[in-house]
Amino acid sequence: MIKDLVKETEARMEKAVEVLREDLQSIRTGRASPALVEKLLVDYYGVPTPLQQLAAISAPEPRLLTIRPWDASLAPQIEKAILKSDLGLTPSNDGKIIRLAIPKLTEERRRELVKIVARRVEEGRVAVRNLRREAIEDLREMEKEGMISEDELYKGRDEIQELTDRYIKKVDEIGAAKEAEIMEV
Fold first, then answer.
1. Among the listed residues 177, 182, 46, the one whose alpha carbon sits nearest the alpha carbon of residue 112
2. Strand, coil or helix: 41
3. What is the distance between the alpha carbons of residues 57 and 35, in angstroms, rounded to a whole number?
4. CA angle 132, 137, 143 (to 5 degrees)
5. Top-tier CATH class for 34-101
6. One pLDDT digit (tens) per residue for the chain, 185 residues
7. Nearest in space to 53 (alpha carbons), one of 69, 32, 65, 64
8. Domains of the chain: which residue ranges?
9. At what angle do helices 107-144 and 2-25 cross, to 10 degrees?
10. 86, 114, 89, 90: which is closest to 184 by C-alpha?
11. What is the helix (H) or strand (E) element at residue 165, kind and residue range?
């Protein structure tokens, strides 16, 4: 019973780490990456739709993204969505392809991005800790109902704490790697 709870908690913590990893991919570094704009919501006939469902996105050069809408009439809406986003990029549209030149980051912008990364990493830590709290509450509930003994409660709590420490370490490593990538000139 405790093993099932630990496995479920581990799966949920893994999911939280994966969400953080995907979230950090959308933060701009000096290189062009399709992940920067994939999740950008574009108004598609009144429905906010992720850009990756409306266009082919590629990075033909290290500092250039190209967006080729499947429906050419969508280009103006895609341009508007890019301009409204917090990416700080200006698209150029030739009617068929939208090009996004990724400029070098200034030192000031790098520091702002590092702060954003730090905030999101802290949110990831909080998510992992919340999962720990929920798992420990479940253990206490099991003990209260007589399903497990007090010794099993403490053993389970220790296992969940080890799991939490491992996933907090993963979150910190992901954050440190992203910060290093941003500060790389």
1. 182
2. strand
3. 9
4. 130
5. alpha beta
6. 888 988 999 999 999 999 999 888 877 666 777 888 888 888 888 888 888 888 898 888 888 889 899 888 888 888 888 888 877 778 888 878 899 888 887 888 888 888 989 999 999 999 999 999 999 999 999 999 988 888 998 999 999 999 999 999 999 999 999 888 888 76
7. 69
8. 2-25+106-183, 34-101
9. 170
10. 114
11. helix 150-183
Give strand pairing partners of 148: none
| Structure token digits, residue 180 | 């290093």
The Cα–Cα gap between 139 and 156 comes to: 7
What sections of 85-149 are H helices per DSSP?
107-144
Query: Structure tokens of 113?
Result: 């991005």
For 57, the 3-state DSSP assignment is strand
- Residue 178 corresponds to which amino acid? K
Closest CA to 59 of 107, 25, 108: 25
Q: What residues have CB less than 8 Å from 174, skipping those under 6 apart?
A: 17, 20, 21, 24, 121, 124
For residues 41 and 50, is the Cβ–Cβ distance under 8 A?
yes
Total residues belonging to the chain: 185
Q: How far is CA 178 from the centre of its chain?
A: 11
CATH architecture classification, 2-25+106-183: Orthogonal Bundle (1.10)
